Amino acid sequence: MSILFRELLKKVGSGNHTGENLTRAEAATATKMMLLGEATPAQIGAFLIAHRIKRPTGEELAGMLDAFDELGPKLQPVSSASPVIVFGLPYDGRTRTAPISPVTALILSAVGQPVVMHGSDRLPTKYGLPLIEIWQGLGVNWATLPLEKTQEVFKQTGIGFVYTPQHFPLTNSIWEYRDQLGKRPPFATMELIWCPYAGDAHVIAGYVHPPTEAMFQIALQMRGVTKFTLVKGLEGSCDLPRDRTAIISLSHASPDLERVLLSPHDYGFTTKNVPLGSTEELLTQIKDVLVGKSSELQQTALWNGGFYLWRSGICADMRSGIAQAEELLTSGVIAIKLQELIQVVNSLSEKTFQHTH
């Protein structure tokens, strides 16, 4: 048993009256001790559930990020005219609404805006459809690439995917606790603003509950992240909703966030989200979007593509962003981008296979 960890556990687990928040340094220490297995299983389980009940602070999230920064993988800087976009999407996937972020990533990378994504397999507590499976269904298997090969894909195509079971195996044991506890611990919140990129980054994170937004803001500002975008998105993702006004916060040089409210109706979109059917159905829908077929999911792709083309500075406003997204999809540019990505990943996967056999 770790005496040091027990003291940290006592701080977060002492209840409403005597419990205390951890300092940034303490949160970093606790996170490292859990990842490295220096705390006992009983201590780790107790900490994760006590921390969830207490609720994390922005300072604690900053400390947890410090630990991930020290122990975790990073894609190295690539040359880019603008900061690399890092999308933070819930690791436990989607169960209700059709995800569009892989298409958004293809749109951005096709116009020279590099994108990094990160995630894992089907995970607790939702066990929803994860990013890795959507990419695999589109012909891009990120799961077998070691980090240096992923770096090469990122350099050549402008899209990178940090797959934690392969690239950050220290986190694997934590998932077993999440499964057994049946609740999302603060790790699930922190992952959304984790940035596994070593260069100048623009962190884009989704959230569900308004208090999370304030926590994110504090954690990012403490970590010196000056460019970030926070989206009250579909199922906590960065995908803009269509059934309600999108609530988005943009970072500025000042401590105050700029609030942007975007109504799909104002831009001629129908106000409903595309439901998520089977994975096969979604993949068929996405492939139709990539060849320019008109559909409800195409509307979602334009709504999101338009926003992110504007937010990354490629387009001057939402309307020109939407128009450019439509042009990119209907002209076949995005389908070609996907083929390029598939070819690069496959060629590097073959080299990896040959090297290991």
TrEMBL record:
Residue span, Glycosyl transferase family 3 N-terminal domain: 6-71
Annotated Glycosyl transferase family domain residues: 97-332
InterPro entries according to UniProt: Anthranilate_Pribosyl_Tfrase, Glycosyl_Trfase_fam3, Glycosyl_Trfase_fam3_N_dom, Glycosyl_Trfase_fam3_N_dom_sf, Nuc_phospho_transferase
Keyword terms: Amino-acid biosynthesis, Aromatic amino acid biosynthesis, Glycosyltransferase, Transferase
Protein name per the record: Anthranilate phosphoribosyltransferase family protein
Any one GO molecular-function label of the UniProt entry: glycosyltransferase activity
Organism encoding this protein: Anabaena subtropica FACHB-260
Domain of life: Bacteria
Zinc as UniProt keyword: no
Pfam families with a match to the protein in the record: Glycos_trans_3N (PF02885), Glycos_transf_3 (PF00591)
Keyword Glycosyltransferase: yes
